[in-house]
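Sample pair:
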Amino acid sequence: MREALVKIHIGRRTIKTVIAVVIAMLVVDAFGATTSKLLFAMMGAMEAVRPTFKESLEASLTQIVGVMVGALAGVLLRLLPFPAVLSAGIGILIVIVFYNSLRIPFSPSLPCFIVVMVCTTPDISPMSYALGRIWDSAIGLGVGMIINTLVFPYDNSKKIRAAMQSLDQELILFLEDIFDGDDKLPNAEAMEDKLDDIAYQLNIFANQRLLFQQHHQMEKLKLFRQCKGSARQLVSHMEVLCSMDKPGQLDDVNLELLRKSGAAIVEQPELVEWCDKDTVTNYHVSRILALREELLDVLTMAEISRNMEKYPKEKTEGNSSAQP
């Protein structure tokens, strides 16, 4: 019975959406609400609550463009001596062709809805209805943007740090597998997947705008991008090691560094004669370890930045009290 129960999770974005919808409908209600007014205010508020600031702007633009295109098409079609359903069908055709011809990356469903409403409701004034829907949508979008920016602003920096740390853990296991003494070499594709995830999370972080934290956000983004660059170079060196039929012999310096990093490297046989493969292997291992140190240093700096952002008052007081 317990396994059949579904765990209900109410996330922050859900809460923000509810707050935005309620406030938007209250604002519209102050001007004399109708079902249609509340509906467009609700859709605007819901569309504006997106994970990133950029996505919210794009959603708002989608809504406004859709309402304007649909309203304009509806007003023009009402002037033609066609039956209402036929006018609505022609309007839908025009909207879809218009969106496809200009390659507008928005859904045409909203303007088509406006066209149908204007064409099939003879007792409304097309122009006043169109202006009213633009106004209602703008209220919903404005409220949604404000709530989305001020209430629980989305910050995925924890996910980025977690992805970087996971990459570092996989690196240690990778190096252990390389020098475990057998002829089977690991595959670096898993590392590429982790890099893709990091790139995706960085794109989200770059498109988010946190009010009152612009400076901290840009600093963190700069640090995270340094991590991404180091991680990309690191994986390229790992791919070279994977492409070898068998890795060369580690020198004493790299062997000691690997063990200090936490890698459980088996005892290496005594080196009889140094060859080119050994040189190539040790070069790439040394670069991997150096890039790993850079990655860890940047992650440490990002953690310090996060703590300063989280506890700015305590940090300031601590610094001032330490001075003579």
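The chain has two domains: 10-150, 157-311.
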